[in-house]
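Margin note: ligand = phosphoenolpyruvate.
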Amino acid sequence: MNRPPQAEPDCKYPRVARAGRPGTVVQIGEVALGAGAFCVIAGPCAIESPDQIRRSANDVVAAGADVLRGGAFKPRTSPYSFQGLGLEGVEMMRQAADQAGLPLVTEVPSAARIAEMAPLVDAFQVGARNMHNFELLCALGQTDHPVLLKRSFGATLTEWLLAAEYIAESGNDRIVLCERGIRAWGDELRFTLDLAGAVWAKRRCRLPVVVDPSHATGCPELVPPLCRASCAAGLDGVMVEMHPDPSQARCDGDQALVPPQLELICEQLRQIPPPPDTAGGYDDGTT
Ligand code: PEP
Ligand code: MN
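Resulting structure:
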């Protein structure tokens, strides 16, 4: 395929590069990412039951967040950990999201699952462990669903943008980048949030960029300040884990916010003025 004319000749990812173009606005349901408003995507790590996901969806609405998250296909480090409820879980989530009036995003584990999930989801999430699954990326490029592309915890920034380029080159530029922490060293925190990398991606690339401080830190007490930092830095949103009763969670309960904490975060985010560099070119006058 020919390179798009706007990109610099040596650019490795000409389709997603900013290259002087306005930022891409990606709609998830009625929610626009990259249009200037800071978006909050929230919900449990995993869908566990109809009641749990319904309560979660209601809590997400009550807090004032915008999009429901939750996993039905869980990529777990151990094969003995809870693997998610599968397609049945996606159906439960769809019902809960519709009742609450929210759009939803959930992880797609493989290209083979796209067709059955597509009618049930508003956006597909590519998990960190699947960022290098190029067959999945190309297959998502052939859908017209938005794709939330998590950065692998071992990927360079360029590799992350090249993964996005795979999706765009296959025909779909409705992509949201999600920084979710990379591997550094030490075990005090689960991963290391690369906030600088997220801002770099926002400047370099025309796609909306969101941050997941829940997986990046594993600590609910670090989530509110990192949400505020992401907002103040001019990024497009956050994805956070919240559970109606974290002590009962089957997955990632230790890092889940409780509903009042999510409500407080949303309230605090509304008080942060938009940075001078808005949707247009992320041009804050410093370069
Ligand atoms: C998730 O968001 O549910 C998840 C599994 O995250 P990650 O792919 O970033 O580990
Ligand atoms: Mn999780």
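The mean pLDDT is 94.
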